[in-house]
Amino acid sequence: MRFELTSALLEWYAQHARPLPWRERREAYAIWVSEVMLQQTRVETVVPYFERWMARFPDLEALAAAPLQEVLSLWEGLGYYHRAHHLHRAAQIVVEQMQGQLPRDEARLRTLPGIGEYIAAAIASIAFGKDVIALDGNLRRVFSRVYDIDEDLSRPAGKARLQEYLSSLPIRGKAGDFNQALMDLGAMICTSKAPRCLSCPLRQGCRAFAAGLQEQRPKRHQRPKLPHHLVTAAIILRNHHVLIAQRPPYGLLGGMWEFPGGKVQPGEDLQSCLKRELREELGVEVRICQEFGSYRHRYTHFRVTLHAFRCALLAGSEPRPLQVADLKWVPLSQLSEFPMGRIDRLISVRLNTGDERAC
Q: Residue 10 and residue 254: Cα distance in Å, rounded?
């Protein structure tokens, strides 16, 4: 069965492969960038970002030489900003220490920031023809159905059972196309919900389909409810400029710019929180004038509701970067030049279309 599976999959891929821009280039750098962008992001979202990225940073040298703020600006909207940090730093390491050439084997690839087991296998197989399977969520879903694996593939027992099947697949010399075929099959046919089984080239050998269990695979453990945080932010205007703060270089939204504020602590109301945060981060006292709207966003591990307020500095208060990386008074028309997370960008857009007067 395993030999038929491989042949059927590759025949299907030869006819139905998606025409993606990184497949046209086939070079290691382009494949690496695409795989980093595709982590937890849909292909249709990634394509325009990839094309803009390659136009600005056509090779490792261009990326390595670019300022981090420019890299973050080009990445804005893709989320998971640590990925952009890692790409930038890894490009610098490759240029400085590896003669500008990405390593060809998985072990050396995994020494670079942001390259884990999956991305290393994808680069090694697609760019360099190594016989390794790049196992991501799409591939796990396909295999869990084909082999009707009734165990959670994120747990040791499920991983071991899956590895047993994978170890004997005949992919020698075909791993790159095999991996890409599975990516396309998982995205187009063997989808998370409502899989198109009647159009699947693996239907005849699919054990879950035969048992009518395809929508019950892969088996998932129940995810805990995401915690929710209340957050505040200050809109402080002066002479048609607004104050923004830069987050520390690493961690959530590392190096991005935001309207200063922070998380509500137990027992605090919104305005008390904002005054405390501005005192701790910027060393200033403010008068809170009016609310500027509330904004919701969901991150991977938590949700936030941010309440923004127009504020005025009290006499004698001059902001200092006590707990932020940097501060700037920026003309409203130039806010688009500073990389921001989704909520802060929404606030900046609203500021540019509303009343600019300080309170």
A: 41
Structure tokens at 305: 């509701």
* C-alpha 267, offset from chain centre: 34
357 φ, ψ to 5°?
A: -65, 140
Average pLDDT of the chain, as a whole number? 93
Residue 287 Cα distances to 121, 236, 290, 335, angstroms: 55, 10, 10, 24
Give the distance, in angstroms, between the CA of residue 296 and the centroid of all CA atoms in the same chain.
18
Please report, for residues 141, 299, 311, the alpha-carbon distance to residue 76 in angstroms, rounded to integers and kept in the order given: 30, 15, 27
Q: Which of 11, 24, 35, 215 is catalytic?
A: 35
Q: What's the rounded Cα separation, in Å, for the pair 337 and 335?
A: 5
Predicted confidence at residue 70, as pLDDT, reads 97
Distance CA 175, CA 97 (A): 29
How would DSSP label each residue in 175-227?
HHHHHHHHHHHHHHTS-SSS--GGG-TTGGG-HHHHHT-GGG-S--PPPPPPP
Cα–Cα distance, 86 to 114 (Å, whole number): 5
Active-site residue flag, 164: no
CA distance 319 to 332: 18
CB 186 within 8 A of CB 123: no
Average pLDDT over residues 306-327: 96
Calpha distance 242→313 (Å, rounded): 12
Report the Cα–Cα distance between both ends of the chain, in Å, rounded: 72
Average pLDDT over every residue of 93-110? 96
Residues 154-209: tens digit of each pLDDT: 788 888 888 888 888 889 999 999 999 999 999 999 999 999 999 999 999 999 99
